[in-house]
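Q: What structure does this chain adopt?
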Amino acid sequence: MSNPIKRLLGQTAIYGLSSIIGRLLNYLLVPLYTYVFADPADYGVVSELYAWVAFLIVLLTFGMETAYFRFLQETDDKETTFSTAFFTVGGVCVLFFASLMWFNNDIERLIILDGHNEYIILLGAIVCIDAITALPLARLRAEEKAAQFAGIQFASIGVNILLNMVFMLYLFDKSRPEEGVLFILAANLCASLVKPLLLYNSFRQIKLQINWTLFKTMLIYAAPLVIAGFAGIINETLDRILLKQIIYDPNNPSSFHEAVAQVGIYSACYKLAMLVTILLQAYRYAAEPFFFAQMKNEDRNKVYVNVMNLFIAVVCLVFLVVSLNIDIFKHFIRNESYWAGLAVVPILLMANVFLGIYYNQSVWYKLSGKTQFGAYIALIGAIITVVINILFIPTYGYMASAWATLIVYFVQMMLSYFLGQRFYTIPYNQKKFFLYIGLSIGLYFLGSSIQTSSAVFNFFVHNLLIASFIFIAYILERKALIKS
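A:
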């Protein structure tokens, strides 16, 4: 029997080619954007718009990807299961876009976009296309067609990067930053359209087969996941929206620029913490179908434990690599006016470590069907996010947002662990939890305290500490990679 962990690692690597390289390429757009948008406030507009995208994708996909994976394991009629999930998403998208076209002016005034309702229409088209293609892409994942999945993602990413470079470097007039925002959205729209074009055969084969009993069952299963996902996005991106809404004072017009500039600085520095998120995204593409496929494996708990140990070791390593080499990574942000926010990077990196652990633990309520607990945990996190941001943004600005993210993901991780041990026990290795997290934090503070006038010496010492972490993790985890 093949080693399931090695299979998971292999598929994560393939999915990671599209996800990690794609995210890295988008990550490399940060130097471009911070170069062409000399004023952080202009980049702040882009960042806020894409914060709304995250909310809308969760709403429009309506938890159907996870529901599809879940019910695919219980039926031989895979086509009906797929088409039921697909037409659910399609119906939601049609209703959403029709509402958006009707109310776009009202929405523009509500979120303070300074008269640019065209941003809203373009954004709506992008998220609807991405949502509609989510299920055909999910089917490729379920069928373990990772190479085809990666190819489609690569093509979309390539178009996005190419058009961004052409638009922003050759057509964009820096004296008209609003054009830059339109160019970015237009590039993204073209990139999104690549997916349905390459999935043409998959769309052509879809039959209008809706099992209404299954539809209701899937909705009941998915509804808590939608709430959990929506609340999770509140934890992940609401801070950028609240920064502008709280700092902006309608009675003081000049405060609008300050508010949007803080969003721009925070968002640019947040990108430096995205390496953990990039890894997590690639892992999630492979992990979700993998976890469900292990449901009938008698040794599934052993597999879940080993996967968790390896995962924590890897994300803690990423935390160390970025945080101890921040003087190098900061140069991805070309404009030094954005560097004022670098202090948030280690905080957000560790926050995303906690998020990754929480995601791994979430397998218990997905496998047991107790998805309502995912909603409860995420809602608690959302409440904490809103409260901390509202209370402390007026005094501490984006630093409050960073600490809120860390606190929320830590609380969610702990809640999920204790609830999971009660309702669907997985005997995780707590010693390794504390060892990897504690060791990485300890090495970070040790490295941060060693700062000399020699950049070369600092680099050598910091990366020696990173190498020591790699050596310890390898010694502890090598057996899991050899056998399972």
